[in-house]
Amino acid sequence: MAITPEEVAETLSMVSQQNLDLRTITMGISLHACADERMERMCTKVYDRVTTTAEHLVEVAGDLEREYGIPIANRRVSVTPIAQIAAACRDQDLTPLARTLDRAAETLGIDFLGGFSALVQKGMGDADRRLIASIPEALATTERVCSSVNVASTRAGINMDAVLLMARTIMETARATTERDCCGAAKLVVFANMVEDSPFMAGATHGSGEADAVVNVGVSGPGVMAAALRELPASASLMDVAEKIKETAFKITRAGELMSRQASARLGVEKGIVDLSLAPTPAAGDSVAEILEIIGVGRTGGPGTTCALALLNDAVKKGGVMASSSVGGLSGAFIPVSEDAGMIRATEEGALSLEKLEAMTSVCSVGLDMVAVPGDTTTETIAGLIADEMAIGVINAKTTAVRVIPAIGHAVGDTLVFGGLLGTAPVMPINRFAGDVLAHRGGRFPAPLNSLKN
After folding, report:
1. Domains of the chain
2. Taking the model in full, what pTM does it have?
């Protein structure tokens, strides 16, 4: 379907009046050819591969911004999960690979690089264990590298040994960056049903089913959506609300489709997906929580919030899927606490609790995202939090995730300040009754009956 001049004009109006931007252009790069038994040689291959393949990413993004007038907030790279190539070597410490990726990101001038990752939903290999053990030091000594570990899937169930290991890893990562408000944990996410093509951090990786290099685009537009919904009277039915969301999501996604086509053509790599997620920022007017309140919830977190979010998420998908030749990634609505001014306000006012957030994750695009909890939270409690979220993903056959920040040295009511896109995280109270048994039982939570699709 051709992009019309009228669509371009309408998009420019969204940019100038409603904070529309393209949240990210992310180039996915395969590193399989970089595997080597010698760490030093592998690091050289990785650096050369990333910097050569993405050499013009920032330049092309800048050109597209100027030519089409649509801001591009972030330029990013995702790579093959590092545990997969690290299997070729025997080094216990894999932080040199993380530092190599960080150096490559700095050379390219990109914002974040994702892929210091492992997939362990059914079991852990030696390289997976070495990568997970390296995460705290890797994230403490790099600026742009992000890490993710998939511990569950609908087809495999939940690797409960990995859940406990990741709870410990999150705590260690927070402690390793205590002097920077535990920011290392803000770059680490634990997944169920992790996708291969997400352009959003911290969970972006370049899946093994992808081409050697692709361009994936993440759109956003909470401000555009909020402005569109304000046009409706309070008497409008939820059917009218859903139709307005679908119509607006289509328009937002068309902007992403245009930029995706142009970026892939100019970079000479395959066009990947358009992720049509509504991704908030701390900026005023760029909040998913605000959209939920325009739909009619008194304050995000109050009764009716999960219903409003389910409507929003579903309608965004329905509207956006018709606007792109290839919708993928996560696609829907994100609810990261620290990155959404409305979520922060709702938390500070006591309207939004961790338990309500968990309920909301059953109908949103990801999960418990950018949530700060007291620094004295036990490892077993973190493991239970992860296990609950993984269960939601596994049973409902959807992607869920946990990006939780233990605020070492801080208590409920304190605030962590990360700055930039990561925003500000109020420390939330957490249920202290996890106990000491469940997290240590280990083994595997069996795959549910609905995994038998063949």
Report:
1. 1-334 (3.20.70.20)
2. 0.91
